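Before going further, it is useful to explain how the protein records used in this thesis are read. An example of such a record is reproduced below.

***
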Amino acid sequence: MKLENKDSSMLFSYTEIPDVFFTEYISEANGDFIKVYLCLVFLSKYEKDIKLNDLSKKLNIPLQTIQVALSYWEEKGVLIKKANGYILNDLREIELHKLYSPNLTLSKDDIQKNEDSQYRAKAIECINNMYFQGVMSPAWYSDIDLWFKKYEFDEQVMISLFDYCFNKSALHKNYVKTVAEAWSKCNVKTYEDLEVYSSKQESLNKIKKDIAKKLGRYSPLTQFEEAYIEKWVLEYGYDLKVINIALKKTTSKANPSFDYLDKLISDWHDRNLKTETDVNNFLIEIKQKKKNIKQLEKQTNYNNYEQRNYDNLDDLYANKKVNR
């Protein structure tokens, strides 16, 4: 007796997506990129040959966006480009490789030296439960362990890092790593360091808002404008009182620029003027010098005028003598 299996209708079939897609990829990709990937997974199951124009029409996504999406997934290693199409990699294999490869470089000494491994394990588990609902991807574990070593954060700082990114609705690796880099550059290692840094950032944000308001800027400051303010506050150590002196000098200008402000403030810094009093005294001194120069110019012009008159009289007197 021969048994035959009847082909299932598409109505009863399903497309399998690995859980790792939701833990590792979905938070970083935009909606159109996700639509493209899901459609490719579906089509690859039937080994369909589809043109990009048709895919664009099917998904109601511009052709250019389709092309960008393919490049994005190719960069992530999800797709491999061939002459006549693409191959979809297994996401589980990709993550397994990421998880396993870093461990090849760890020696027994590295593991033994980690005296705080138990505390770190508790911190990682806390992060898993609080911000991933207990289903954190295994790849996160190796990344967090690497960040502990690279940035030398204590457990509270690491938990605070994830709390900060979670509250920003940006709990994906690129953003978390960017924030970690910023904290590390500001010498944040302990929770006390983080509190000092956070206090400075809060004060800095307040200064940024105040400056924007005084300049009549209702749109957000650009990245370059914020960089100027950070330089004045963090590098030069100026408070709002000093910056206000520069702002007052823009009242006569129709569209004051940050370049103009930066030239003023940088000049004060180069002259080693540190406080509001230092700057005001310097400006008074400059004003007095200008006043003295003007007075000197007036005196010079007056003396020249008197001298010219005297010379003219001598010439006239000399002429009269000649005529006699």
In short: Confidence is low (pLDDT under 50) at residues 1-7, 100-108, 310-324.
